[in-house]
Amino acid sequence: MNYFSRKVHLLKRSIQLGADTRTKFQLIKAQFNWLRAANENCQSARIHYNLKGKGGNFSAIVRDLPTDWIIFREIFYFDDYIDLTQLDWEPNTIYDIGANAGLAALYMHSIFPKAKIYGFEPGKAEFENAKLNYTQNNLGVIYPIGAGDENGSAVFYASEARSGGQGFAPSEEFKKDATTYTVQLWRLDDYIVDGNLPLPDLIKMDIEGFEVKALTGMDKALSHAKAIILETHGEELHAGVIKKLSEFGYKTITDSHRFSKFRILFSAK
């Protein structure tokens, strides 16, 4: 999609989302600012967005946090996962690995309303918000675990101020003001067997530098899936992800620079 086509696409989406001709960005920012002014002393305030997808209207629940506003903007304004619209088939089962607050699952639901989504999110606060989105919109099921190359427990680094960068392998800068707690880590192949989960047709992953380890623990899932879209965090990790996916017959469809060292990779068989 070239620059002009992308702008036209965003304009069409903004008209669908808003009652007037304001851009989505302006609408999102206005709603966040309005809620913050109305709830100055409310730390747990949430914003509800009414959105329109392929299957009809649905609602997105977003925490009143700068990081959630950024993630919402990236997904619904900048269309980080728009490459999924290139698929000429409909997935029945989607895995959302690193579900965060559940916003990526909502975006995928807007494209594939009939699919059942299985989310995996070890962050405590993010899991609770994602569970609201999953339940309210009948997306599927979400589990409070992390995906890795072994089963057991692991230290998770979290920060409400910067929830978009949390995980098992955050940057040293992130660690400075992060809260840590222990969460369950699973090889997804083992969790699939343990929980009798269906294998995925489509996989989305955003786990902040832990992607190669997670892929190492999901051979069965990768063998069954037909496509995967994920964010990578660094050149070495990016190369490692491509190498791992190529072993299972995946070919790169798009490889897009996002910002800084981050890229979004879309691969399919």
TrEMBL record:
Native organism: Luteolibacter pohnpeiensis
Any Pfam family the entry gives: Methyltransf_21
UniProt KW keywords: Methyltransferase, Transferase
Upper lineage: Bacteria, Pseudomonadati, Verrucomicrobiota, Verrucomicrobiia, Verrucomicrobiales
InterPro entries associated with the record: FkbM_mtfrase, SAM-dependent_MTase, SAM-dependent_MTases_sf
Xref: SUPFAM superfamilies: S-adenosyl-L-methionine-dependent methyltransferases
GO biological process, one term: methylation
Domain Methyltransferase FkbM span(s) in chain numbering: 96-251
Gene Ontology molecular functions: methyltransferase activity
Full protein name: FkbM family methyltransferase
